[in-house]
């Protein structure tokens, strides 16, 4: 039976578009979401349901849990039937046990199968995790070996820039991903017209900067991107960008247009809505932008 050379597995936090998943035969491990209070509310996606919940005054927050080792083991088995070797990407190990589940599951593979799986902690999520996978796809298409790709991707992880602005910090505070103090500071600054930007640093969400004079969330993210670009000396190199959002396609498209107008060397790889699990922790109208230097 013919096998492909290198396959890919990721948890669903990467927010990859369905066409990319299908084209490259990527196996996706779902992250578990428990939120019965929201299930029967109207809405086409979780963000519309969250808005409806707020209108009704329902005080409830999502509960999430990492995939099990078996979840990953099943994907390893299926992908290793199709591919000679497999790269597995997870969201940051600093905020989820998903990487540990993936890594431990590898140990249950029989014989030489363990040596055919490479687990990569993105130390990021959503758009940042997706960018790492897009780079893996490029390297696979160039014909590089799995070991070489794993090494190169590991070196790329610290170079992922992911910036995010929440419309309301209460969702991410309830998840425990930011402290009550940071959440209150963010809420207070938002009321004064200041856009607090967060970023992943060493796998943890931390403040990135305060953007004054931003007309909206898209403008605030752009100002952070602009500030970052000024620190780099790579004017002619193509920069790949991914944008994800909490059911605010208009805001995401506006951010794309602003960036492309001022930066001709930037390529927007894709825009995609945040998945249910990440979205339940970030809230409606969240906007995130990631790029890799």
CATH class of the largest domain: Alpha Beta
What portion of residues belong to β-strands?
25-35%
Query: Which structural category do the helix and sheet elements fall into?
Result: alpha/beta
Count helical runs.
Answer: 11
Q: What spatial form do the alpha-carbon principal axes imply?
A: globular
CATH architecture of the largest domain: 2-Layer Sandwich
Number of strands: 12
Give a quick account of the main beta sheet: strands, pairing sense, barrel closure: 6 strands, mixed
**Measured distance between first and last alpha carbons:** 39 Å
What CATH calls the topology of the largest domain is: Hypothetical Protein Tm841, Chain: A,domain 3
Mean pLDDT: 91
Q: Count structural domains.
A: 3
Q: Encode the helix/strand succession as letters.
A: EHEEHEHEHEHHEHHEEHEHEHE
Radius of gyration: 19 Å
Strand adjacency order, main sheet: 9-8-7-12-10-11
> What is the percent of helical residues?
40-55%
Low-confidence stretches: none
């Amino acid at each position: 039976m013919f096998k492909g050379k290198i396959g890919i597995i990721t948890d669903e936090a990467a927010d990859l578009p369905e066409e990319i998943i299908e084209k490259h035969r990527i196996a996706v491990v779902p992250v578990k979401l428990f939120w019965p209070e929201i299930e029967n509310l109207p809405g086409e996606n979780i963000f519309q349901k969250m808005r409806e919940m707020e209108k009704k005054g329902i005080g409830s927050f999502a509960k999430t849990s990492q995939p099990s080792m078996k979840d990953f083991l099943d994907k390893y088995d299926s992908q290793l039937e199709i591919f000679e070797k497999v790269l597995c990407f997870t969201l940051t190990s600093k905020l989820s046990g998903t990487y540990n589940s993936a890594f431990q599951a590898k140990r249950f593979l029989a014989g030489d199968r363990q040596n055919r799986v490479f687990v990569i902690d993105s130390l990021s999520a959503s758009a940042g995790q997706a960018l790492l996978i897009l780079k893996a796809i490029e390297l696979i298409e160039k014909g590089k070996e799995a070991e070489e790709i794993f090494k190169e991707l590991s070196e790329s992880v610290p170079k992922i820039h992911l910036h995010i602005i929440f419309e309301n910090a209460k969702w991410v505070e309830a998840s425990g991903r930011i402290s009550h103090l940071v959440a209150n500071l963010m809420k207070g600054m938002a009321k004064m017209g200041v856009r607090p930007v967060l970023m992943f640093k060493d796998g943890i969400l931390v403040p990135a900067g305060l953007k004054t004079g931003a007309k909206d969330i898209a403008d605030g993210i752009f100002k952070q991107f602009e500030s970052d670009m000024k620190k780099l000396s790579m004017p002619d190199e193509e920069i790949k960008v991914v944008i994800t959002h909490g059911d605010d396609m208009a805001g995401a498209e506006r951010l794309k247009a602003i960036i492309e107008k001022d930066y001709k060397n930037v390529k927007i790889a894709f825009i995609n809505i945040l998945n249910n699990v990440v979205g339940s922790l970030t809230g409606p109208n969240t906007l995130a932008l990631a790029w890799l230097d």
